[in-house]
Design brief:
The chain folds into two domains: 10-52; 66-273, MetI-like fold (Orthogonal Bundle). The mean pLDDT is 84. The chain has helices at residues 2-48, 55-65, 80-111, 113-126, 135-142, 145-170, 174-182, 187-225, 230-239, 243-270. Helices cover 81% and strands 0% of the residues. It is an all-alpha fold. The chain contains ten helices and no strands. It starts with a helix and ends in a 6-residue tail after the last helix.
């Protein structure tokens, strides 16, 4: 009996390891195959259009570019690392201001029907407006490119936070609020002890959507306003006809955006729960 048990246990362990190995291979082979196909298509396009750099040429340029990404030869000649950090700084400021305003506003709109009736039409009207449409107004108000870009980030980031937070508050089960009323909880305790834990997944969804939009907008805003930033750097490389650097910038923008999205998705999963 002991021998049979050992054999059975060994067989289950082997099956478990095989399943894990197959899962790991699928997780690796699929993306690797997709990336290989992408590189082959890129190579084929580059062979037909000489102006497009090949993957090999782009890799060689990237190695040289990232050998010293933080050089500084003056305001208009700085390494790509400084430009990425400048863009991230603008996104952090605009995104942070949007969170400070948008999340509390979403709570108020979702909590009080009168406020929701008053401001929902305004949010519905302004939310579809392209963030770059607000950029000239920012230049008019602030008389400078940097705060105008932050203003565009603020505007594009605030709407997903307001909408998702308000929707989350409105969906909180009435039973929760009835219990809070029976316990005679203050409005502050209702918000912090009842609403916030239930609404947090919705808030984080709004935050995740906002950061993706903010990163998209900052690149376009910097291309229009100039100065420093990955968007300005990309446009400057186009003016210098360095197409390989443009391709590198596209990859850098995508990688940074993916990292921001991944971090916030992990945070959202950490605080998402399902009711039993």
């Amino acid at each position: 009996m002991s021998t049979l048990t050992n054999v059975s246990g060994g067989g289950e362990a082997a099956i478990l390891w095989r399943v894990r190995l197959e899962s790991a291979l699928r997780a690796i082979v699929g993306p690797a195959a997709g990336f290989a196909l992408f590189v082959l298509l890129w190579q084929a396009v580059a062979m037909r259009i000489p102006e497009i750099p090949t993957p090999g040429a782009t890799w060689h340029a990237a190695v040289q570019l990232f050998a010293d990404p933080f050089y500084d030869n003056g305001p208009n000649d700085r390494g790509i690392g400084w430009n990425v950090l400048a863009s991230l700084q603008r996104v952090a400021i605009g995104f942070g201001l949007a969170a400070l305003v948008g999340i509390p506003a979403g709570f108020v709109i979702g909590r009080y029907a009168a406020v929701r009736a008053m401001f929902s039409p305004i949010v519905s009207l302004l939310r579809p407006v392209s963030p770059l449409a607000w950029l000239p107004l920012g230049l008019l108000l602030f008389k400078a490119a940097d705060p105008a870009a932050i203003w565009a980030i603020f505007i594009c980031s605030i709407w997903p936070m307001i909408v998702n937070t308000a929707a989350g508050v409105a969906r909180v089960p009435q039973d929760y609020l009835n219990v809070a009323r029976v316990l005679n909880l203050s409005e502050w305790k209702v918000i912090t002890k009842v609403l916030l834990p239930a609404v947090l997944p919705h808030v984080l969804t709004g935050v995740r959507l906002s950061i993706g939009t903010a990163w998209l907008v900052i690149v376009a805003a910097e291309m229009l306003t100039g100065g420093t930033g990955i968007g300005f750097w990309l446009w400057d490389e186009w003016n210098n006809l360095k197409v390989d650097h443009i391709v590198i910038a596209i990859f850098v923008i995508g990688i940074v955006g993916l990292l921001l999205e991944t971090m916030l998705v992990a945070l959202a999963r950490r605080y998402t729960y399902t009711e039993e």
